[in-house]
Amino acid sequence: MNSDFNKIILFVSQQMEVAMEQNNEYYNENSHLKAQHPKQQKAGFLKMVLAGVVGSVLTLGVTELPEYFSHDEAKTISPVTVDNTTTSKSTSNLSQMLERVSPAIVGVINIQQAPSSIYDILSGNRSTDTTPAGTGSGVIYQVDGNNTYIVTNNHVVEGAKELKVKLSNGKTIDAELMGTDALTDIAVLKVTGQLNIKPVAFADSSKIRIGEPVYAIGNPLGLELAGTVTEGIVSSKERTMKVETSAGNSSVKVIQTDAAINPGNSGGALINTSGQLIGINSMKISANQVEGIGFAIPSNDTKTIIEQLVKNGKVERPYMGLGLVGISDVPAEYLKELKITQTEGVVVAQTDSVSRTKFNKGDVITAIDGHKVESDSDVRNYIYTHHKAGDKVKFTVYREDKKTEVTMTLRSTNSK
């Protein structure tokens, strides 16, 4: 039986690149989203994993002609008068708002250790040189005395040995990483010193409306185009996108917009007409046949995460101590060998010293608190959104094809 589970674990690690060494949530502060995030262009871009996105064709047809086209006689139509003064005033107000907010959108430079040369490798040495590995964007959201706090994406700062921030005045300064969260793709930086930059205020992202004008500000294609503003609307208030992260598969709640989000925009701001932050630009669909589909992490979700990152350096989540694999991700021949007949649910592939007192390898979890689960991300998302460490959770489990109930107390990520 153990050899069979080794086959499953090997298959998952090779085919899905899922790190199971840490825990069932695959939680790792230093991991990053394996998605098509609009970071600075470089080799090895990874595509976004999307759930429920269906390509469709929309056709526009005229079903009824206006009444004045249904008569043969000509009609006199009065010309429409446009109030240019109102339009000019509106444009001026918009420009003033963008000019006020733009200085708070900064460039984030990820500096990593340079690859070792062949000479270094042969001589047994490693290069100590550093080199910029990529750039993204960030948003100044808080100033506390001499400290300025910047929110950006986790994948912008992933793997950095040093981090620098480039301001709108062209000055480059050192930044300290306060904390990162791979599953939500959020990171917080701190810079010391008086910058005299007004932070961007948070909007209540739950109150945005479809069709509402929005503006994306960031550094597309690198710092040469710093402070670029693109315009669009809220295309959808809430989408749930499935993404692969090295902290595990995750479902991320995002705002959809058609404002252009290009490589380098990651971590930049999506703001409303009042100049308030409604989201952090994070990812886009990258395909030749797709245009105008970008996503931002809602400001309400961002606030919750950054508060924990500043306080603890990481996000505390409940922990089960299980390594889980969705049944749909296990080859049929392995399911047959393991005598698993269920077609939905998740297979327990690993247990730690505590969880193995409750679960066996090969158990199939089909529900939590009566809530149906079909994948490891379903389990994670339910646990994270409905429970905290210390809660008792009831699992519906099939063990050797017999249904049973298992109750387990959740731990914190610090107690593992």
UniProtKB/TrEMBL annotation:
<dbReference type="Pfam" id="PF13365">
    <property type="entry name" value="Trypsin_2"/>
</dbReference>
<keyword id="KW-0720">Serine protease</keyword>
<dbReference type="GO" id="GO:0004252">
    <property type="term" value="F:serine-type endopeptidase activity"/>
</dbReference>
<keyword id="KW-0378">Hydrolase</keyword>
<comment type="similarity">
    <text>Belongs to the peptidase S1C family.</text>
</comment>
<dbReference type="InterPro" id="IPR001478">
    <property type="entry name" value="PDZ"/>
</dbReference>
<dbReference type="InterPro" id="IPR043504">
    <property type="entry name" value="Peptidase_S1_PA_chymotrypsin"/>
</dbReference>
<dbReference type="InterPro" id="IPR001940">
    <property type="entry name" value="Peptidase_S1C"/>
</dbReference>
<keyword id="KW-0645">Protease</keyword>
<dbReference type="Pfam" id="PF13180">
    <property type="entry name" value="PDZ_2"/>
</dbReference>
<dbReference type="GO" id="GO:0006508">
    <property type="term" value="P:proteolysis"/>
</dbReference>
<dbReference type="InterPro" id="IPR051201">
    <property type="entry name" value="Chloro_Bact_Ser_Proteases"/>
</dbReference>
<protein>
    <recommendedName>
        <fullName>Serine protease HtrA-like</fullName>
    </recommendedName>
</protein>
<dbReference type="InterPro" id="IPR009003">
    <property type="entry name" value="Peptidase_S1_PA"/>
</dbReference>
<feature type="domain" description="PDZ">
    <location>
        <begin position="318"/>
        <end position="409"/>
    </location>
</feature>
<dbReference type="GO" id="GO:0012505">
    <property type="term" value="C:endomembrane system"/>
</dbReference>
<dbReference type="InterPro" id="IPR036034">
    <property type="entry name" value="PDZ_sf"/>
</dbReference>
